[in-house]
Amino acid sequence: MKTLATLVLYGVAASLLLALVYAAKAIRLRNRFRRLGPLQGRSMDHILEFAGKPNHRVRLAPDREVLEWRRVGFHIAVAFTDGVCDGVTYVEGQP
């Protein structure tokens, strides 16, 4: 019985630690975008340099693209035309 209780406690502790790690990653990404300020008019290279590699990239037309950054608890999609930001098309998890 002690072994089962110990395993359950380890499982709970591991789950809490994992949740903290994912929450920290989401907060870090959200803060990167906050520090950038308004995105409209900024170059794709500048945003990529600051925010890091996106999780998903969709080409809508030869000159139009949407980049998405996703973390558990935060998701942002940014549209670009000819490498210049048109603005944020979707944000989830922003306070």
Describe this structure as you would to a colleague.
With 95 residues, this protein is an alpha+beta fold. It has a single domain, classed as Beta-lactamase Inhibitory Protein, Chain:B, domain 1 (2-Layer Sandwich), CATH 3.30.1450. The chain is 45% helix and 33% strand. It contains two helices and four strands, in the order H-H-E-E-E-E. It has helices spanning 2-36, 44-51, and strands spanning 56-61, 64-71, 74-81, 84-92. A four-stranded antiparallel beta sheet has the order 1-2-3-4. It is elongated, with a radius of gyration of 18 Å. The model has no long low-confidence stretch (mean pLDDT 91).
Total number of domains: 1
Number of strands: 4
Query: For the record, what CATH class applies?
Result: Alpha Beta
Alpha-carbon distance between the termini? 44 Å
CATH architecture: 2-Layer Sandwich
**Nearest-angstrom radius of gyration?**
18 Å
- Detail the poorly predicted runs: none
Structural class: alpha+beta
Helix and strand sequence: HHEEEE
Mean pLDDT metric = 91
Helix content: 40-55%
Q: What spatial form do the alpha-carbon principal axes imply?
A: elongated
Main beta sheet, described? 4 strands, antiparallel
Number of helices: 2
Order of adjacent strands in the largest pleated sheet:
1-2-3-4
Give the percentage of residues in beta strands: 25-35%
